[in-house]
Amino acid sequence: MKLCFLPIYIFIIFLLTYCTPFARKDKSSVPKMISVVFVPGYKGSELFRKDKDVNDSSKKVWLTAFQSLNFSSPDLTLKNEDGIIPGKVLERVRLIPYLIDVKIYSPWLNFMSDKEGILLYTFPYDWRKDNSESAELLEDFLQTVKKDNDGRPPVVIGHSNGGLLTLSVLNRRKDLFAKAVFVGTPFRGGIGFMEDLIPGIPIAFNETITAPCIVQSFESVFTFFSRNEKWDTKDTLHAFNGEIGKLSYFRAEDWKKFQLGVYSSNSKCTDYKIDRFQSQLDRAFVFRKSLDPVLSKNVPPVFVIHANNRSTIRTLFGNKTDAGNWNWDFKNAKYAPGDGRVTFESSVPPPGIDYESFLTTGEHSSILNEEAVQTHILDLIRK
Question: Residue 92, SS3?
Answer without folding.
Answer: strand
